[in-house]
Amino acid sequence: MPPIAQELADTLSLGSLLDEVRRRFGSYELVDHWTQGEFHHDVVIRISSEDRSLPGAVLVVATNCNAGVKETLFFDTIPDRDALWHWRCPHVNDFSGTLPAILARAVTSHWFDPCDLLVSNARSELREEFRERQEGGGWQMNRSARGTGQK
Q1: What DSSP line would sit under the chain, residue for residue?
Q2: How many whole angstroms separate alpha carbon 53 and alpha carbon 3?
Q3: Which end of the chain, C or N, has fewer beta carbons within 10 A?
Q4: Structural domain span for residue 21
Q5: Tens digit of pLDDT for each residue in 96-145?
């Protein structure tokens, strides 16, 4: 049987992963949701369980824009968003900080180097006039387009 980080990652979708967490461990708390560019989400949850198969109480689930699980990471404490991205892409000067120990990690077939999302010519589904660079890299809707329904 694979370690729990891989078992949860292998559900391949965020909804299925959360269902599996609930089924196996009971309740969880949604702590935060971070986006980096259009195509990366980090969902931070705290699992309320004394189950010894859990490497840590905090699970970060990295997904693509379609909620496909790319990576799972277990920690004892909630990591800082910038520290997590500094660990992923240490060459990006916008990110800094020290990440708590990663207690378990798994990746899926959806995984690819997240630093590829940060380059200046990264793919975007937003038209140029409606996007701006996010701190650290990646594209986000610009202020003038927010709330207009434009893409």
Answers
A1: ---HHHHHHTT-BHHHHHHHHHHHH--EEEEEEEE-SSS-EEEEEEE----TT-S-SEEEEEE-TT-BEEEEEEESSPPPHHHHHHHH-TT-TT----PPPP-EEEE-TT---GGGGTSTT---SS-GGGEEEPTTS-EEE-TTTTTTT--
A2: 8
A3: N
A4: 4-119
A5: 999 999 999 999 999 999 999 898 888 888 888 888 888 888 888 887 76
In a domain, 35, yes or no: yes
Residue with tokens 């380059």: 119
Predicted TM-score of the model (pTM): 0.90
Distance CA 82, CA 146 (A): 24
State the first-to-last Cα distance of the chain, in angstroms, to the nearest integer. 44
Phi, psi of 46 (to 5 degrees): -110, 125
Please count the structural domains in the chain: 1
